[in-house]
Design goal:
This protein is α/β, with parallel strands linked by helices. Helices cover 40% and strands 14% of the residues. Strands 1, 2, 3, 6, 7 and 8 form a 6-stranded parallel β-sheet that branches. Strands 4-5 form a two-stranded parallel ribbon. The protein starts with 7 loop residues before the first helix and ends with a strand. The mean pLDDT is 94.
Amino acid sequence: MIIEQPAEVFRWLYPNALWRMDRNKKEVYLTFDDGPIPEATPYILDVLENLDIKATFFMVADNAQRYPHLLNEVRARGHRVGNHTFHHIHGLMYPWAAYINNVLLAEELLQSDKLFRPPHGWINPKVCQKLNAMGWRIVMWDIVTRDYSNRLTADQILNNVRKYVRNGSIITFHDSLKSIDKLKLMLPETLSWLKGQGYEFKVFD
């Protein structure tokens, strides 16, 4: 899934996942994937604090284990933590039982209250069903910014958010080495623009 706004066919594949929240409210849900890492997460936390915005960080538990102070800092600043597996594994290239075990192992560390986003947006439908049955909420996105792509400039990422955002959008950025240089150029401007448009920032309950 490399397109900014997933087509309906992708939403149809995982009907029980969260793709978009209440379309009747001028709200957006800001999310960051793949951290925490010291090269990116502290900068993002400072930007969010300066703008009084809360977000959800879908963490790779292997990173959180290496940098537990960042896991604690995200929580201390009032943000939500989500589960992004322990080793950032691909949902269609891993046996389903082992995949679920990887999620559960990550949860022991992250304590996300069963809030999960599959890496790359791919998950075996059987895994999806079993996690749903276990009380997990699977969070996808309404906009993926592709801030990690070397084919997009910071201005293009900003313009994509402006183009695709709508009521209830779940917006995905990344606190990663591939993204941080572009985030430093466009994240404050993007979030300020969203605020200027009247959007309220929410986290998942």
